[in-house]
Amino acid sequence: MGKGLFSAKSIQNQLFWSTFMSVLAVVSYAQEVINTNTHRLEQVADGVYFATGTGDIYTMSNALIIERDEDIVIVDSHITPAAGRALLDSIRIVSDKPVTTMINSHFHYDHSNGTPAFGEGLEIIGHQVTYDKLTGDPENEHTYQSSLRRFDSTVARLENELSNVTDSDERRQIQNQLDYWKRHVEAQSEIVFTPPTQTLRDKMTLYRGGREIQLHYFGRAHTGGDLAIYLPDEKIVFTGDMMLGGISYMGDGYVTEWADTLQGLKGLDIELILPGHGPRITDIERISFVQAYYTDLTEEIRRLKDLGYSAEEASARADLRQHEQTLGVRQLGANLEAVQRMYDIWDGLIQ
To answer: In DSSP terms, which residues pair with 213 in a beta bridge?
Structure first.
C-alpha cells in the first residue's frame, strides 16, 4: 500500500497516517507462526523468519531466515551440525529455495558450529575477528571448552540421579533427559570449525534478489567481531548476542566498550530487535537499559579495583542493584568471569 494513497493536507490526515502505520507495523509483526518438529518459525516480515528451538533438539541459539527471489540467506547455524540439519529441515517447510549464504553474527560455537550441515559451496560472511577466531585454535577457546565440561557434568549428574531414584515416573523423566544430553554430547564429534569465506571490518551491504541486507560492525561488545544484521526496508535487526533482552555472557566481552557499541546500534531505524537468545524485542528502549548496566558495571569494578580489591572480591562486592526494575538485578555481586576479564584487559593481559 503506497503512502501516496493518503493526503497529508491536514494535521488530522497526518495523525491518521501515523496511527495507521503503527497499527500496520504491529499487524506485520503478528504474522504466521509455523511449528516444525524442532523449531518455531515466527514470520516477522514477508519472507523473513525468526527461528527458535522448541527443545526437541539442542539448538541453544536463535537463527534468522531471509528469503530472496532465488535463494535463502540464514544468520547463524546453531550449536552442532545435527542442530544445523534440523534448522535446514525446518527451512524446507517454508521454502524449497537453496540456502546459498550464511552470515555469522560472531564466532561463538553455539552460533557457528552448525555450519557444515549446509554443505559445500556455501558463502559464509563474517567479521575479520570471526575468521581469525575460527582459523586460530577454536577447539581450545575457553568458552567452548567450558561448555564441553558443562555438558559432561550434566550427563554425569543425570546418571547419578538415575541410579538413586526408584519412582518409575521420575526415573522415566530423568532417563529422557539423560538420553537428550547424551545425544547432544555425541553430536560434538561431527563438529568441523568452519570460518567465513568472506569477511568485513566495518560494513557490507548485500543487494540481491529483491532484498537489501546490511551488515554493521559498531565496535567490540560480546566479542571482538559482533555484527548487526539489518533489514532497512523492514526495520528489523538481528543482533546476535551483543544485544539481548537482558545481560549477555561477558566471558569474551569488552564491557568498557559495550555501551558505545550499542550506541551505534541505536543509530539504525529499528522497530524490531531479534536477539541471538530469547524472544524478540519490540521495546527499543531496552538498548538504553542494557547500555546503562554495562556503563555502571565498568565504573563500579574500576572503583573497586582502584581500592585494591582482587577480581574475586570486586565480583562479590559490586552493587548493580539500581538495575532491578529494568534488568532484574536483585542481588549484590557481578559475574566473576566478566570481572576477571575486565581486570585482565586493564592490566594489559588481553588486547
So the answer is: 206
